[in-house]
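Team,

Forwarding the record for the chain on the shared tracking sheet. I've put the sequence and predicted structure together so nobody has to dig through attachments.
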Amino acid sequence: MTFVLLGPPVLSRSAVVRDEPLRTDVERQVAGWPKARLVVVDAEGRTPVRWRAEPSAGFSVGDAGTWDVAYGSGGTLRTRATSGDTPFDGAVLLGEADGVAYWAVRGAVDLAAEDPSEWIDLRMAGAALDALGAGLFTTAVAALSWHDSARFCPRDGAPTRAGNAGWHRVCENGHEDYPRTDPAVICLVHDGGHGEGARMLLSRNVGWPDGRFSVQAGFVEAGESLEACIQREIAEETGVVVRDVHYLGSQAWPFPRSLMVGFHAVADPSGPLRPADGEIAEAMWVTRAELRQALARGDWSGTGDPGERLLLLPGKVSIARSMLEAWAAQG
């Protein structure tokens, strides 16, 4: 059985045009600066978000990650106006949308004009943002995190300075460095079956709370293909041998600089499961019916019935959730 995602993963949505020639066109950058907007991200990766609907009584900032699930509403980034005649040092050009240039900068809450409780990180707000906000926030977090860690040349250790509107850094000896992305695979393993009785593989990392499960993932090693990484990682983590690997989609995961590349693969659920000691607390096969029930209950919830198998799924900001929803919709 093959299937596709129901829509783009939430952090792969973007309404911003990445115009690479604009990064070296200083005249155009300066001309567009007066009406440009700033995405301000603080040291904890937060930016202000305006929600499109007021929450019900009892809502707190900590609930923002499930707001779109609980209240059916979303949010919009709150950007700032520019000041001065030219782009700030350290600003990163994210791109343009509807003739407006957007830049990312490090900053902090303006207590005179902003509510600190509106500052929320990408994990919490990403799924609720529109395509413009999701694309801007994801790119801003990724690019600014890279600048924070690339202040010295990886070749000779010399100090670096930003160039090309924040899209490279150059050291005093002329060596150039560019934003880095670490590829990681994430794979939904299933038995190839149809209907509600079809099964898929879930696992729980040792550091996760009881009941929280997701699909398998791992970083690609040097000299390794994506498909080989999937086969290796799943065998190492669960003892399961997979076949028929197919691509599903991808999204940035800038925590700090990953690209999650999603696949699905087929395996035989009759074999033994061997969770990796010290890494995987437990692994299990669940039916499509069980997954649908967990999705219907909503995030981080259970019925409380005695003997219920608690199944807490990844939040909507993760590509894992997109993959689970797509498989659940089949059959």
